[in-house]
Design goal:
globular; mainly alpha; about 0% strand; 15 helices
């Protein structure tokens, strides 16, 4: 028992250290660029001048090399792609600070208050999601990877080592860079604050609050079921209370509100095209919703209850339960 506990602590410390060190190449490179720029902004080397002229392309290159390549190598060595799940909560924070501090953003003289609002909201969103990640993982680092990656590794077998680079990492770059595009726009366009900025704030905050309560209710439900199993008692087949009585996936709905709230910030700045990232993300989440529900239906103890739940409850957008055959058959 003691040896197993020591091994678990060692693995936990090792994974925490890896997670903290992994983004350092990009951070150190960017700080070096800032240092050279501020020392002599009028006489930059070709490399630093290119970094100054192309902030968006530079962010993509850093993402590709540091996340896609380095994280993939780490995942390949560890036989677990757990780190990208954790960094979903961190990368938007890194990106919003990158966009805010890039010298070209300063030249464009973006609205400081809008920038502060978006940065603050991004931190709140990240803290909520990071807390939920560690709460779900029992405050451990890298205990497991996303179950979808595990399923795909079984599906693709010996080819998974190279397919994972595209399925797990390159695809994440498309999603994350796309949905974070409003953060770039906020720091590249200048306009006085308007009522639409308030609307965007309300939508973002509403999304964070809905996702927090939905995830908390789900965590409490899973924890109660775990205790029942430990006692040898039957588990409750389905969560249909709280926010979950109005939506089958209120946590997903809250998360989408957050990203679409950022789109409103960008739309107000004349860049409505930035909705594409949020739209693609929503479409992918719709596919994930199907996978999650199919997984629920494969569990014998909850299949019937979940089928009834599907018939009566809205998928994403919270709404009142529908009746069956004209009668409310809730139990």
């Amino acid at each position: 028992m003691g040896s197993s506990s020591n091994g678990s602590r060692h693995r936990n410390f090792k994974n925490a250290l890896i997670a903290f060190l992994a983004p350092l190449p990009s951070i150190l490179f960017y700080l070096s660029f800032l240092n050279h720029y501020h020392d002599n902004p009028n006489c930059l080397s070709p490399l630093w001048n290119w970094c100054f002229q192309h902030p968006l392309l530079l962010s993509h290159i850093l993402f590709f090399l540091n996340v896609n390549v380095l994280f993939w190598v780490i995942g390949f060595i560890q036989s677990s792609h757990w780190m990208i799940d954790l960094y979903w909560t961190v990368i938007p924070v890194l990106l919003v600070h990158y966009y805010a501090t890039h010298p070209l953003a300063e030249v464009n003289k973006y609205n400081v208050w809008r920038s502060r609002i978006v940065i603050f909201l991004t931190w709140v969103w990240s803290i909520r999601l990071t807390h939920n990640y560690f709460r779900r993982e029992n405050w451990q680092w890298g205990v497991r990877e996303d179950w979808r990656f595990t399923d795909m590794s079984l599906q693709y077998g010996k080819h998974w080592w190279w397919i994972s680079f595209f399925a797990v990492y390159l695809s994440q770059q498309v999603f994350l860079m796309g949905i974070c595009m409003p953060m770039y726009i906020v720091h590249s366009e200048n306009k006085e604050l308007t009522i639409w900025d308030l609307v965007a704030m309300v939508v973002c905050v509403s999304g964070i609050i809905v996702a927090y309560y939905a995830d908390t209710q789900l965590h409490d439900f899973v924890s109660r079921n775990q205790k029942l199993k430990e006692k040898g008692e039957p588990a409750v087949p389905n969560l249909d209370t709280g926010l979950w009585q109005y939506s089958r996936h209120p946590n997903y709905f809250g998360e989408q509100l957050w990203w679409w709230g950022l789109v409103i910030f960008a739309w107000n700045l004349g860049c409505g095209w930035s909705f594409v990232g949020a739209l693609i993300n929503s479409m992918c989440l719709a596919y994930v919703t199907v996978l999650v529900e199919n997984r629920m239906l494969k569990q014998d103890y909850r299949a019937e209850a979940y089928k009834l739940y599907q018939k009566r409850t809205s998928v994403w957008i919270p709404w009142f339960k529908s009746s069956l055959d004209g009668k409310d058959k809730s139990t």
